[in-house]
Amino acid sequence: MKIERVKTGYLEENCYVISKYGKCLVIDPGDDFLKIDSLVSKYKCMGILITHRHFDHVGALEQMKDKYDVPIYDRTCLEEKEYKIDDFVFKVLYTPGHSKDSVSFYFDQEKIMFVGDFVFKDTIGRTDLEGGNFDEMKSSIGKLKLYPKGITLYPGHGEKTSLEYEMKNNIYF
User: Fold this and answer.
1) Nearest-5° angle of CA 13, CA 14, CA 20?
2) Which CATH superfamily is domain 2-169 in?
3) 12, 23, 127, 153: which is deepest, by most CB within 10 A?
């Protein structure tokens, strides 16, 4: 699987385009439709995954939906289970704390997880915004710690990290 990151908007939100066999999924289409579209248009788009619906993560969602007419997958329609979209297989993990609707997407075969604003390198997402809750965040971190330590975490802002690194260096773990 190829993972391409597009930084969008003044908050530098990470939109990810993951692809294989000429098809892709878009994760968190942030504030720059043209930038995202220039990458996505090389593939057949199969769907859009949303980690949470804060403005910086969904700024281009309507334009993406209008152009590509693909399903949108977010907390409103997802259960904590495994999903298969064409050649993409992933598990949904509810990870509230930063927001009530936060979910993470775990691709077991690739050992990668897209975590939105749940975890960042050396820290976690804010819990003081509307819908945030520190106790829920602690519970979500506890669930994450049950996953294989070697997985790579792709956050909604900043650089990727690993669960192992966070367990050793992140004071919230």
Assistant:
1) 155
2) Ribonuclease Z/Hydroxyacylglutathione hydrolase-like (3.60.15.10)
3) 153
